[in-house]
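Weekly puzzle thread! Below is a chain. First person to post its structure in token form gets bragging rights.
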Amino acid sequence: MFDSPLSASAYEVLGVSPEADDDALRRAFRIRLRETHPDTGGDAGRFVQVQRAWELVGTPEARAAYDRGRGSASIDTDPSPAAWSAASRPRGDTRPRARSSGQPGGWRRERYLTLIREWAGRGADLPDPYDPQLVRTAPREIRRLLADALAEEATARSVAELGMGYSVWHDVAASGRGGGPDDKLDHIVLGPSGLYGVLSEDFGGPVGFRRGEITGPAVPGAPISDLLSRMRIVARAGGVRFSGAIVVLPDDDLAQQITELGKVRGTPVVVVGRSALATVLRRGIPGARDIGGNEVFDVRTRLDQSVRFV
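Winning reply:
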């Protein structure tokens, strides 16, 4: 809760302005508590959000810390491969990691930094572009870039844990004619269970599904259709065949952690919560073609020779 750049602020959850005095804040909390309480027909998820919001701003000390930007989850300011790999590795853990190429979330991190500095009017002199207070007040399109970069880095950490039997390429260019730099495949993962195109997303709220596509008030366009189109471009360039497609979302945004959508345009598709990604990659997707033996090395060589990074 409140750990995504797209999450509503504590004040937004309580329905008050950040300038509201303590009495107004307390009244708003009591009203929202009654409105959302499950015993009176309210939504349990929203009820928990209201309680968490009050924990963050309900006392002068907590509110002061929250307003200074220290009352919410911190944002990793170092996107380097060494940083995200080390973050997922317990001290003393020397087990081999998955073979990795490219910079997870790199393009969106760079774009976020450019736009947040332009928006804040500080250019390169902006002291801390990841300050939580600054992030909370930025336009949604800027926060969305940071949220997706963090999502891609989280996926990279999960895949790295799978070990040396897996190879992964991050931020892969997937532009057709006239395509822009944001036409990319977030990740390609190759392992014993198959070759997968992976999309890492954070839409900022719960999602649903309809006719093989992700739906929701904050879901733009057709994410699965776009993912499959980009996979086809990469497949043609490398002379490879994908086994399936995986969309990775925050756990809290899914009713269940693994949702199999069946075949979409002939490709098996599954939507998973972040905590379930490793399980799905190890066991594979129902209907997906396994890759084994010398074929793994052949596919890896083809991708190494054909993949371009954004």
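Puzzle host: Confirmed. Bonus trivia for everyone else. The chain has eleven helices and nine strands.
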